[in-house]
Amino acid sequence: MGFASRLSLGVKPSKALLFLPCLFTVLLVGSQGESTAMDNVATERLAEESHRQDSANLLIFIMLLTLTILTIWLFKHRRFRFLHETGLAMIYGLLVGVILRFGVHVPQNMSNVILSCAVNASPATLLVTFDPEVFFNILLPPIIFHAGYSLKRRHFFRNIGSILTYAFMGTVISCFVIGLTMYGFVSFMKVVGQLGGDFYFTDCLFFGAIVSATDPVTVLAIFNELKVDVDLYALLFGESVLNDAVAIVLSSSIVAYQPAGDNSHSFEATAMLKSFGVFLGVFSGSFALGVATGVMTALVTKFTKLRDFPLLETALFFLMSWSTFLLAEACGFTGVVAVLFCGITQAHYTYNNLSPESQDRTKQLFELLNFLAENFIFSYMGLTLFSFQSHVFNPLFIIGAFVAVFLGRAANIYPLSFLLNLGRKNKIGSNFQHVMMFAGLRGAMTFALSIRDTATYARQMMFSTTLLIVFFTVWICGGGTTPMLSFMSIPVGVDSDQESSVTMVDGSQRRNTKHESAWPFRIWYTFDHNYLKPLLTHSGPPLTATMPACCGPLARCLTSPQAYENEGQLHDDDSDFILNDANVSSMYADVTVSTDASGSRTVNRKRSTAAAAGTGGGPSDEGLDQELALGEHELVIRGTRLVLPMDDPVEPPTTVTLPPPPSPPRSDPRRHRL
Amino acid sequence: MGFASRLSLGVKPSKALLFLPCLFTVLLVGSQGESTAMDNVATERLAEESHRQDSANLLIFIMLLTLTILTIWLFKHRRFRFLHETGLAMIYGLLVGVILRFGVHVPQNMSNVILSCAVNASPATLLVTFDPEVFFNILLPPIIFHAGYSLKRRHFFRNIGSILTYAFMGTVISCFVIGLTMYGFVSFMKVVGQLGGDFYFTDCLFFGAIVSATDPVTVLAIFNELKVDVDLYALLFGESVLNDAVAIVLSSSIVAYQPAGDNSHSFEATAMLKSFGVFLGVFSGSFALGVATGVMTALVTKFTKLRDFPLLETALFFLMSWSTFLLAEACGFTGVVAVLFCGITQAHYTYNNLSPESQDRTKQLFELLNFLAENFIFSYMGLTLFSFQSHVFNPLFIIGAFVAVFLGRAANIYPLSFLLNLGRKNKIGSNFQHVMMFAGLRGAMTFALSIRDTATYARQMMFSTTLLIVFFTVWICGGGTTPMLSFMSIPVGVDSDQESSVTMVDGSQRRNTKHESAWPFRIWYTFDHNYLKPLLTHSGPPLTATMPACCGPLARCLTSPQAYENEGQLHDDDSDFILNDANVSSMYADVTVSTDASGSRTVNRKRSTAAAAGTGGGPSDEGLDQELALGEHELVIRGTRLVLPMDDPVEPPTTVTLPPPPSPPRSDPRRHRL
Lengths: 674, 674
Fold this sequence. Notes:
- 2 copies of one chain form a homodimer.
- In chain A, 67% of the residues lie in helices and 1% in strands.
- By secondary structure, chain A is mainly α.
- In chain A, α13 (310-330) packs antiparallel against α14 (335-353), α18 runs antiparallel to α19 and α28 (600-612) crosses α29 (621-638).
- Chain A is globular.
- The first copy, chain A, starts with a helix and ends in a 36-residue tail after the last helix.
- Chains A and B meet through α1, α2, β1, α3 and β2 of A and α1, α2, β1, α3 and β2 of B.
């Protein structure tokens, strides 16, 4: 069975050896020569047996995912939208967990197991578990990379100030609010005598950090389908993507807090400063590495003609993105964070250099990996509720955690929104704030962080509680998104292209985007547009035009021939990610054609849509809420635009002459989450 | 660090835990509770350190692959074709192996290491090694699946009798010829006193089995580029795909040969019969499983409307194909073999049910996985020449092995070709036979089989020798393919579409394919066309037409609505895989347009082409050989068809009116290997 088993003989070697792509064993030459041990037939047979068992276990998961896919299809087919695929995966995981625990392996004492449903029963149950590091090294990276790679960039950059505020300050606030609240609860539990082990303040803070990572997949999938306001989408998506990074670095900084001396949980300024230094160092290091590999990929794809061979190009893109993760881990930074910023950089620069086929390929590849990894994590989550052996469900702690999570989210959203609104022209309405509050789902990152270490009593209690929080938020908050949207009168059916196209017509789009941002971002915009884009991609103005005259030869050498062609039309090609043929044509159909295949009902809708948009008559909230609650999926499926009245109305979808979209990508970016 | 490390504490737990997608640990509830051990800070720090080391090691490989990709691009860009990407990957692996061994880690005694270049020197060298099972469980499955999924099916089925003969009988013959030859050499070595350990007859046979798996990636890539005769391509590709399966089952049957009693290497009829039984059982079991999951996927994709959601469809396809592997491994069959037949079934049935987007996605996905896995294996191969610690290079054994491999290949190709030609209408010419002989490269499968067990002296010697065989065949035979083709006067520039289109015009295509096959295959064709295709796909005649009247309701229920539309035009949609728009249009350009962008040189070529094809004048071998040797890459790149004279000439590329190809797929299947 080879090298590795020589190192770990006797501990079921092939357990570890089976499905791992890259099990490395670094051998020193000195440690060879015991190869006679390999002849041990018994060991080999044991390994073979466990290999079979492992295959069977993994098969359970594959079947679970297959079942999930088929059910998702059924749901989509029947247009049933209250349960997202991740919620579904959790339910199937739960069912399999129940079967594995109570059904299959203990038929002899079946009856009394069912009677005594306590979680620590049935000592003979066979369990399916993964090494938690799998989540961090295999499953999370593609999810996070995909999040970065599929950021709707213009809307993201337009709101970048707010997003950064929510993601950084908000997560830190949330972490400390939750930590303090939990410390209060834990102190109370100690007094009451409900605490079965140690639980320090650092544990409370750690808990605060891990449950501060929001993951509104469900909500965003519904937003995507209903075409909810793009700014709200950008705020939520951007926040959730970035706060994953903040939470992961924050939690590792808290773990790094180790005061000198005996009492390892007292307050000490030096240790705290060190933790703060760790936070800054790890975050900026990971950021720099991610951006650096992204930039390198952009340069390679720009200056070679690799685009003639899409397979090579896609392979290079994949390998470079993977190497970001490995490089960060090898340097002691956080791979997942590096991968996130690598994804954003790749989308912003490299994507423009790729051949159309590679653009499709890379997007589809990471879409698939994201889909599989996400559903795998969520179904595993369902499974662990019954298969994890050291659950500590403490009612008081759980109640405290729910209260703390609520408070933490509120302390993040409302005060920060108030502060941000002081500076924003396009205010974040109170209904938007309520939706952001409501959409603070916890998902894959929270789970991965909490399962990573379940050695102590405190960590076990955290893990069990976290599981419940994830279940609750994904099922209840996720399922309640559509009613919530209609209750909060959030505009749906807003076409992101529409708005941007309208502003593009009057030529103020770029200025708009800039003016909505604070001055550091305006400087960044100019720098990016004048120097980075031309340097790293084929687009943008030629460097010869933007760089000082003294750098002429260098500028000529670095500018791509295509850039000169673009010189006349300096459009912002961030819109590449958003505009596409299909959308535009359906818009035309919407505006100019008065009757279509769906007949009278559509005409009815159009009337109420027009009324709601303020072009025909006054707003009629009740009727529209009803409309929204009853028939919104049909609306969306027919591509009809429904615009509800809001506090500060955006441009109504009036008849405008649209310019042909600049070089639309071949596939629909909005399909990135089905 | 979680569950797994609890099991394997003290043996560098995180070594195993890092990059594995699915490290399973099956815990019995009884074995819990030692969680206090987790607090061990030293263990954690050790784990972290080794995690970093592992990341760095894997990074070396990623960088190696990146470098390979860039060099491949350069080679393709400069149209240099003597070194295939796999050969290149090996060279880079070799270089890194040399650097790791002699360069980096032993700077203090650098000079004397370089002086004494013996392979077992430098005890302080750091080595990068994988668990060999990684090859079988992670890297080989996508390669083999891709091979099955990209079989050019019609040409494959037209030659299926010959392919099966070469793959089954040929591999068995080769195995025994090599085994016997090696036994002779080994006996001689024993007499001379050159053998440093045991080497039994079963070892010889095992060696015969593993080096009988041919893998002509390099050759086929060149064939693909040069458009070598499709039948030759089909014979070689089909043989190499299937003989991998035969060799892997054969080698495991030989390992299973264990006579009772003390002398475990004597001949015993019962044990041999048992081995034969193992062979049959494992092979047929793997075959049945692979086909079964393929059929299941076809049924699911046919009877659901999953095609509306390409992401779900692709994910399902991927998961079902992966589950084949796991199912086979869990049942004790061979996953790689099951995956091969699953791939063929998926290509034959499921592929027709997929949406065009999913067809692209699945092909591109497996193309990418295949590319990465293949290059990974080959670069690792290069690395092991210097990094493997137990090499046994025995000059006599190596010479013997080369002789045996040559004899084994000859005993496979020539006698079987003679026998096959007795029955074939379209004879396998002697030049074809020489090329098949020459193209018997050894590659990934041989390497994976030989590295799987390197515990004994015999196995170590086999491994070292196998490495050399792979290097030699890939570099020498692979690089010599183009000269060999021109030396053997093999027709290049034959368009697979052309031939098939021509036969399609006179309506005899299906009959041709059938008539070239023996009666069992004719029965299979009819059954497949009348029952399986309509049952499992949307194509073919409706079951209501082919099934007996009594099964009417069932037939109606199982027939897809599209099948009735196809009723009129019962074309064989195997051609879907071969025909496509681009090819046909370039053909038109070739035949009808007399001048094109490349000007006078093309006109010259056209003249000689026409001469060679026998439409203008007599053949002129010398000039054509020269043509072939000097400028063939330019020929191919411009899409000009060059047909050399052969023993029994096929249809010349005269002007024919082509029907529009039936529903051409959107992507070019010939791009499957760049």
